[in-house]
Amino acid sequence: LKLQFLYLIDLLTARAMPPGVGPRRIIACDLDGTLLKPDQRIGLHTRDVLRRVHQQGEHVVFATGRHHIDVTRLREQAGVPALLVTSNGARVHGRDGEELYAVDVAEDAVLEVYEAAKDDETVTCHIFRDDGWWLNRETEALEKFLAASPFRYTLFDPASPPVAGVAKVMLMRRDHDHLVQYKERLSRLFGDSLTILFSTPFCLEVMAKGVSKSAALARVAEAHGLDLSHCIAFGDGMNDVDMLRDVGRGLIMRNGHDAVKAALPHLEVIGGNDEEGVARYLEEHVLLA
């Protein structure tokens, strides 16, 4: 495993803060199903609230399974200098795009995960590297995502998958039970030497051991002289459970998966992403009068 963490405090500290207003809390938002509306865009009300939250002195973090290149575009759309926790915590990027933290899946493990699914034509294998999103085969299921995002994949030679510098490997099929078989198989093969989890029922994701949104967020907090108790986090998926559980205040979206609500029954459920629930909560409970 490659483990790289640079404490670039001067780059992490908030910029363009109003005079006399210092950093207070970390506001961590998942994207799909949480901050993004169902059309995968950031609503106008959400943009306005995020801008005011930043101006108040809070640290905004986007914490997602998406690739950092794709999330950089969404940060520009939001109009706030958010820190980026991407690939479920395998990467952290600063406000100027600098890589602050990276941990890769071992090359032999990437190859073994790919080999496990390469002959199954019903499953697509997605590989996230710093240089982009790599895919073994095209499917019609990607059309909806591609219609809402300019981020594009590159097809790789099935005989020579990219294995170096990999943040995560993702197996996708719109059949949860089928993917469960892969999760069980990979868990037997790797034990606890990898992080293997579902982000949605149709996305099985594989990262290096110890990788999680929570662990990455803890590093961000430490770099600001804070800890997870100073964090408010919003999420809806199974890859959000650790983050929602570990922060000072975790909030589940109304549209969140039932498994998330069952795993964290003590947490508050707020409005859905279709009604910009994150923005409404921040406006009512975080923004100062």
Description:
With 289 residues, the chain is of the alpha/beta class. Helix content is 34%, strand content 24%. It is built from 11 helices and 15 strands. It has helices at residues 9-12, 31-35, 44-56, 68-78, 107-117, 143-148, 176-190, 213-223, 241-246, 258-263, 277-285; strands spanning 3-5, 26-29, 59-63, 83-86, 91-93, 99-103, 124-129, 132-135, 153-155, 166-172, 194-200, 203-208, 231-235, 249-253, 268-270. The strands form 2 sheets. Strands 1-6-5-4-3-2-13-14-15 form a 9-stranded mixed sheet, sandwiched between helices. A 6-stranded mixed sheet has the order 9-8-7-10-12-11, with helices on one face. α3 (44-56) packs parallel to α11 (277-285).
Summarize the structure.
The chain is of the alpha/beta class and 289 residues long. The chain contains 11 helices and 15 strands.
Distance between the termini: 47 Å
Order of helices and strands: EHEHHEHEEEHEEHEEHEEHEHEHEH
Number of helices: 11
**Rg to the nearest angstrom?**
18 Å
Adjacency order of strands in the biggest sheet: 1-6-5-4-3-2-13-14-15
Strand-residue fraction? 15-25%
* Mean pLDDT figure: 91
| Contiguous uncertain segments of 5+ residues | 1-23
Number of strands: 15
The helical percent reads 25-40%
The main β sheet shows up as: 9 strands, mixed
- What would you call the shape? globular
Name the structural class: alpha/beta
